[in-house]
Amino acid sequence: MSSSLTITNVVKAYSDKVVLNNLSFKAEPGEFIVLVGPSGCGKSTLLRAVAGLEGIGFGKIMIGDRDVTNLAPKDRDIAMVFQDYALYPHKTVYENIAFGLRIRRFPETKIDELVRAAALKLDLMPYLERKPAALSGGQRQRVAIGRAIVRNPKIFLFDEPLSNLDAKLRGSMRISIAKLHKELAATILYVTHDQVEAMTLADKIIVLEGGDVQQMGTPLDLYYHPSNIFVATFIGSPSMNLLEGRLLDRDGSVVFRSDLGLEHRLADEYQSVLRSAAGSPRKILWGVRPENFRLAEGDCVGPVYTARVVVTELLGPTSTVLCDIKGHEIHISLPAPHRPTRGQEIRIEFRSRHLYMFDKESTISIVPS
Question: pTM here?
Fold first, then answer.
């Protein structure tokens, strides 16, 4: 039976370095929470603190209505899946999955029932008598997940479980984990640095940086309504373009003018809410996602810019094109069959229902969500 997980004012420090800075959030029963952020942001430390593998300096960790802050890992009713699988090389797949149940002295008939049920869910039935050395990386990770499933814990903890797999296996394992979550209705806390995993799997994403929660919300909330520059540039691939400049009043219209002279009139729905910022000396960063541009063809709705192609990266169904627009290097994404070549001049149209603008000094979004 899945349970809620409540983190309240958790602080963790090593010597004079604060790794977790007063973190608080709640995962509801059955919710899939993904922690993302760059290396050293505190995401794995938080996961290990929930597991009981790391102590905390201050705060409280609740699983359901139990305070587990000071409990040993074995008493927390959690199961953890590690990056490096952590399988016993001399034991078969069956014995690896069954190991935790044997330690808890489950009856052999119950062990067999649970192991085979987990193996069936994970397509491991043909491999039960093999040892880990005879398995692929994806199969080994499924064994590690099977060992967690048979525990039937209140919380599942995943610590970058797919980072050792190649791209194709990561894709198939993402689908397997998503299906498993739906089938088990399990509460999952999942750590990754891969935003594709986060966007694909999460009910809710928590973006960490420097031990602080930068933003928490659904994948689409974070993508379309980033609260600051860090979240805006971390979520989305290719990363968001940022142009520095100011907001000006041009004959009653609010216009962004970059420091290099590129001008963009704000859409009508943002004119009134940002009018007070027009004419202010504060620096503004206008964020533009690569997919917000398209080749200007026929009747254009949005502003059109002339761009010179610097580099084109061919990515199969799309191309990422690095362009020079009035001295700004800007990445744009174009669908096949558009393959502009280096040095070519192209006309691109800006189209987006969303506006991303940030105060340069505070890095906070100035666009009402």
Answer: 0.90
Going by C-alpha positions, the residue among 36, 62, 48, 63 that lies closest to residue 12 is: 48
User: E strands, 259-336, where?
Assistant: 263-265, 284-288, 293-295, 304-314, 318-325, 328-335
Determine contact, residues 135/126, Cβ cutoff 8 Å: no
Tokens of 14: 């090593």
Domain boundaries, the chain: 5-234, 242-359
- The answer to whether 366 and 358 are in contact (CB under 8 A) is yes
Pairing of strands 66-67, 241-250: unpaired
Three-state DSSP class for 364?
strand
**Other beta carbons less than 10 A from residue 30's beta carbon:** 17
Structural tokens at position 43: 């995401």
In CATH, the number for domain 242-359 is: 2.40.50.100
DSSP state, 238?
A: S
Cis peptide before 238 (omega within 30 of 0): yes
pLDDT in tens, 143-156: 999 999 898 899 99
Structure tokens at 95: 């014995």
Query: Which uninterrupted H or E stretch holds 12?
Result: strand 5-14
SS (H, E, C) 169-201: HHHHHHHHHHHHHHHHCCCEEEECCCHHHHHHH
Per residue in 194-209, pLDDT (tens digit) is 888 899 999 999 999 9
pLDDT digits (tens, 9 = 90+) for 231-254: 999 998 889 999 999 999 988 899
At the fourth CATH level, the homologous superfamily of domain 5-234 is P-loop containing nucleotide triphosphate hydrolases (3.40.50.300)
